[in-house]
Specification:
Elements: H1 3-28, E1 39-41, E2 48-50, E3 63-67, E4 72-76, E5 82-87, E6 98-101, E7 104-110, E8 116-126, E9 129-136, E10 152-155, H2 157-166, E11 172-176
Parallel strand pairs: 3-11, 9-10
Antiparallel strand pairs: 1-2, 3-4, 4-5, 6-11, 7-8, 8-9
Organism: Streptomyces albiaxialis
Keywords: Signal
Protein name: L,D-transpeptidase
């Protein structure tokens, strides 16, 4: 075989492995119920608001919703039904509010902060910084250095697993304030 053929077969094998692993995880995954919803004070409007309620301005259809100010994600399925919601640790670089799509995914890599991460779901690029959701393999959450540009929105491992199963390539990601 030529060198290019060997490389092509290796790449195909790698993608087949990733697809197989994602399918195995999808078959084993049962979405957990949305978190309970105690009320809290919304600092931007000064009125009481359910901090876990899906933002009104977050679109329609099956999508991921990321609220910058609330540091929260919603996985929204058919019928505008929230399948899961959870808190995240934001990156130091944030996307502008708007609608994006999942552009790429990686099952395991090393994050820009040097920490091994898994279930990476990328959806935006801001000033050369790639923005996406991920979970640290060791379960740690970052202590953000505001002087360092990072795009990883960190999740707990179980939340990262749910995101991985839900947010396939092309899935809309709606970012709201």
């Amino acid at each position: 075989m030529t060198g290019l053929t060997v490389i092509a077969l290796a790449v195909i094998g790698f993608f087949a492995f990733q697809a197989s692993a994602a399918q195995d995880r999808a078959e084993k995954h049962t979405p957990s119920a949305p978190e309970s919803s105690p009320s809290s004070k919304d600092s931007s409007s000064g009125k009481a608001e359910d901090s876990k309620a899906l933002p009104a301005d977050s679109g329609r259809g099956t999508r991921v919703v990321y609220a910058l100010g609330r540091e929260r994600v919603w996985l929204v399925g058919k019928g505008n039904k929230v399948q899961r919601t959870y808190r995240v640790v934001p990156s130091t670089v944030s996307p502008s509010p708007g609608t994006y799509k999942v552009t790429s995914r990686s099952s395991q890599i090393t994050g820009s902060d040097g920490v091994p991460i898994e279930n990476v779901v990328r959806f935006a690029d801001v000033d050369g910084v790639t923005i996406g959701f991920s979970a640290a393999v060791d379960g740690s959450m970052p202590n953000q250095d505001p002087g360092r540009k990072t795009g990883g929105i960190r999740e707990k491992r179980a939340d990262g697993e749910a995101m991985w199963v839900f947010a396939t390539i092309g899935r809309p990601v709606v970012v709201v304030r």
